[in-house]
Amino acid sequence: SLPQQVRLVEVGPRDGLQNEARPVTLVQRVELVDRLSAAGLGHIEAGSFVSPRWVPQMADSAAVFGNIRRRSGVRYSALVPNLQGMEAAIAAGATEVAVFASASEGFSQRNINCSISESLQRFAPVMALAGEQGMAVRGYLSCVLGCPYDGRVDPQQVAAVSAELLAMGCYEISLGDTIGVGVASATRQLIETVSRRVPREQLAGHFHDTYGQAQSNIYAALLEGVSVFDSSVAGLGGCPYARGASGNVASEDVLYMLNGMGIDTGVDIEQLVRTGQWICQVLGRDNGSRVGRAMGKV
Ligand code: HMG
Ligand code: MG
């Protein structure tokens, strides 16, 4: 049976903008976050504290956190790869943080320059500091349905790393199909396997739409009892270390589907569509949301 409510985690300002070629100004990054919170999104990943040499688009994330208009109840999260990033996220006033690991060794090396087990070791001091600060930590796991370097990824491996992230103290594990290669049957199988180690209530889905499978994967995950999904307004973005990765599934498209199924999210589709149109204009790109294009015409 389908959930009555879904929590949408808006990752456009981070996962989206980190891979857009055209530079976005600080003012525009701030406006994007503020428009998203005004549309009713309750959890927005506003930036990341990674090496600016690796991801120049996310440099200056501290200033984004410093200038947004904070709405009460909204969680503004930051992606952090290590203690240095964690300290910066705290100083910037992030509500919560997210650490990120990979289910495949090849992607771990290319994305964060270390093995999976080394990355988990780097998270230990991050988790300790988060504990002291009373900050919640979310865990991302990449390449759960395939890796651009290693190919097939074993669901047992995904389950094992997910279980480690949970044991370290992550409140939720977001399973990322980083390169969008998964299909619905594989998604169901994956969640079935991972849920033996991590309760379904603590799993989220993070689908990229590279092969047009994101919506059916979300539906498959909904049927498996997952009720938290990451999405990106206008389908912005991709991943600089996963060639060919297109943007995340578009928030507008997910919302349209959930609305049609009578599932509550608290997000206003009209405002979200207008936000998507606005950011596409800013970036000079086509709107990656079908719903955004369709509703934008009327
Ligand atoms: P490294 O070069 O191995 O790190 O990079 P290092 O510890 O040797 O440090 C090298 C330099 O980086 C030093 O500066 C550090 O200070 C600096 P230098 O002394 O040479 O001038 N540095 C930092 N600067 C700012 N903030 C930091 C930080 N840490 C070190 N936190 C590192 C290792 C992890 C830092 C690097 O590989 C990195 O930043 N990678 C980030 C990659 C990234 O952001 N990828 C995109 C996000 S993941 C994603 O999109 C997937 C996801 O959406 C889910 C999915 O779709 O699957 C989450
Ligand atoms: Mg992603």
Automatic annotation (TrEMBL):
What PROSITE patterns does this protein map onto? Answer: HMG_COA_LYASE (PS01062), PYR_CT (PS50991)
| Protein's name according to its UniProt entry | hydroxymethylglutaryl-CoA lyase
Its lineage opens with: Bacteria, Pseudomonadati, Pseudomonadota, Gammaproteobacteria, Pseudomonadales
Report the residue ranges that make up the Pyruvate carboxyltransferase domain in this protein. 6-273
Q: Which reaction does it catalyse?
A: (3S)-3-hydroxy-3-methylglutaryl-CoA = acetoacetate + acetyl-CoA
Recorded hits in NCBIfam families, A to Z, give:
PRK05692.1 (NF004283)
Query: Record's family?
Result: Belongs to the HMG-CoA lyase family.
Q: Which UniProt keywords apply?
A: Lyase, Metal-binding
What EC number(s) would the UniProt record show?
Answer: 4.1.3.4
Gene Ontology MF annotations: lyase activity
Which species is this UniProt entry from?
Halopseudomonas pertucinogena
Pathway(s) of this molecule? Metabolic intermediate metabolism; (S)-3-hydroxy-3-methylglutaryl-CoA degradation; acetoacetate from (S)-3-hydroxy-3-methylglutaryl-CoA: step 1/1
